[in-house]
């Protein structure tokens, strides 16, 4: 029980750090980089050995728990998630004032306690706490917000990069690979899941035609899982998720930010 309680407390601290990070960016009129916000929360409360354990697909147990927990903030109406990224709402800003500690925030989310009507909107970001220690496995995220998917189409087999620093191949490896002609899902090697490097945008692009459904995938580099990027460009991060109405959708990967955009 003590171990579970400690794990819960650490998750609550990270969730509070996420909300405070979004608030800080909003109040500073800065673009919100969800990758950096998530990374900062883990930097403040590092994963222990149990949380750092990689689940199937290469996702740290603690990272999966944290991204799942952010759904509570969405349900409460304190943040929104969209194709352009994450954003805190005005009610979320007021929540940072009404529930200033991780414990108070967790209790409010658990009980569905609304923000008191007389709570003001803050004018400055919540005070940041110094990290307790640095996480040795931490990969520093860049503070560049994902760019809109203004891309031009290229053939799917145009894999060969010419830019210095570009990989030789980039794959969209996920649970829709068989729809693209691969023999199995979640394999980074088949030609059927490779992307093409656009000569203008210098992004790796692929348009796929999928049935309506909810899909998950990762970006796999050079036909291997040795280097892969998930949500918000995180190395070995949580899966990218695509709720699709059916039909063609273009996926663009930027090797500079390690993130994807849809159009």
**Percentage of helical residues?**
25-40%
For the largest beta-sheet, the strand count, sense and barrel status come to:
4 strands, antiparallel
Instruction: Count helical runs.
Output: 6
| Low-confidence sequence ranges | 130-164
Shape: elongated
Cα Rg: 19 Å
- On the 0-100 scale, what is the average pLDDT? 81
Strand content: 15-25%
Q: Which H/E pattern describes the elements? A: HHHHEEHHEEEEEEEE
Structural class: alpha+beta
Distance between the termini: 46 Å
Please give the number of β-strands. 10
Can you walk me through this structure?
A hairpin with a 6-residue loop joins β4 (196-197) and β5 (204-210). Strands 3, 6, 7 and 8 form a four-stranded antiparallel β-sheet that branches. Residues 130-164 have low confidence and may be disordered. This protein is α+β, with helices and mostly antiparallel strands and 263 residues long. It contains six helices and ten strands, in the order ααααββααββββββββ. This is Amylopullulanase X25 domain-containing protein. Pfam families: X25_BaPul_like (PF22058). InterPro entries: Ig-like_fold, X25_BaPul-like.
